[in-house]
Design goal:
Shape of chain B: globular
Distance between the termini of chain A: 68 Å
Number of helices of chain A: 5
Order of helices and strands of chain A: HHHHH
Shape of chain A: rod-shaped
Radius of gyration of chain A: 27 Å
Radius of gyration of chain B: 21 Å
Number of helices of chain B: 3
Oligomer: heterodimer
Chain lengths: 170, 143
């Protein structure tokens, strides 16, 4: 075997090793990106919870005050917010399909209730929006519960578990 | 003249009608706050069958909503005129049938009727010459 042959074999071995190493890096990078995406989904979910609650509250108030125009505007806003929620749920592999179904139904009901209010300034607003408001309430409740479950089990980014040998500082 | 879009929507109406009439149908109709309208979510979109004047009667409409609840297409009952007079649109009867079927499905009307009828005597067969009034046999010959 000549020096050239030895160098060729060594070069091949190095190339194989580099390919294997690159595969591990790609795999690790993909995992890191997936983890970051999931965390982003969690953060987006936590951000949308108060928005949904605020809308629910405003919709209830509009029904009590019998403000048809305001109700129509809020129902449109709800459709957008619930659609955003569905987008967030779709990006999280562990999302709740029940919540997704509830959100979709609330979007449908909001669209239909809004149609029902066109040209009807003296409508019995609480009655004319009963189903959609019930649906919105369910979505808000389920979303809050999901957010609570996530925050109670999630490890904050960069946090370390305190071990039994850790004395802390006094 | 029927447009391509109208033909497709008419086909959708017929298929919805067939699916709604099937006992193991995956098409489930629901009520909403909109009076005399019923909707079903299928494949990410929502179809709405409604009585346009909110009175449960003609004219009817089928609306398609996208995932965000926005209206993307619709088909409505109506008439058209030509030199020979006024004619009903091809899909009028199917829209009415779908509305009726959806309403009956949502309100479980057929189940309720079946439950009521279980407690009532069956009607005699109309052509049965032996069935008279109170249900007893008559001495008169059938012919």
């Amino acid at each position: 075997m000549s020096v050239g042959d030895i160098l060729s074999v060594a070069g091949l071995a190095i190339a194989i090793w580099q390919i294997w190493r690159m595969g591990r890096i790609v795999s690790a990078t993909k995992k890191a990106v997936d983890d970051a995406t999931q965390r982003l989904g969690v953060y987006n979910l936590l951000l949308i919870v108060p928005k949904l609650s605020r809308l629910e509250h405003d919709i209830e108030n509009a029904a009590i005050r019998k403000n048809v125009e305001e109700m129509r505007r809020l129902l449109r806003e709800w459709r957008e917010a619930a659609s955003s929620l569905r987008g967030i749920l779709a990006s999280d592999h562990a999302h709740s399909s029940d919540l997704d179904t509830l959100a979709q139904e609330s979007i449908n009901l909001a669209a239909l209730a809004k149609t029902n209010l066109v040209g009807k300034e003296n409508v019995d607003l609480p009655n004319a929006t009963k189903r959609v408001r019930n649906s919105i309430e369910k979505v808000c409740l389920e979303t809050s519960m999901l957010a609570s479950r996530i925050t109670s089990t999630a490890t904050p980014f960069g946090a370390r578990q305190i071990g039994s040998d850790s004395q802390g500082s006094n | 003249m029927t447009t391509y879009g109208q033909s497709r929507l008419h086909e959708l109406v017929k298929r919805l009608l067939l699916a709604t009439e099937m006992s193991d149908s995956k098409v489930e109709w629901h009520e909403s706050d909109r009076l005399n309208a019923f909707h079903s979510t299928i494949g990410g979109a929502t179809v709405v069958i409604a009585s346009d004047d909110d009175d449960g009667r003609y004219p009817y409409s089928l609306e398609i909503l996208d995932e965000e609840g926005a209206l993307i297409d619709s088909l409505r009952s109506g008439t058209y005129q030509d030199d020979n007079g006024e004619w009903a649109m091809n899909w009028n009867d199917d829209l009415e049938a779908l509305y009726d079927r959806a309403r009956r499905s949502v309100k479980n009307i057929d189940r309720v009727l079946n439950d009521i009828m279980k407690h009532l005597p069956k009607l005699p067969i109309p052509d049965d010459p032996w069935a008279r009034g109170g249900g007893g046999f008559s001495d008169d010959p059938p012919f």
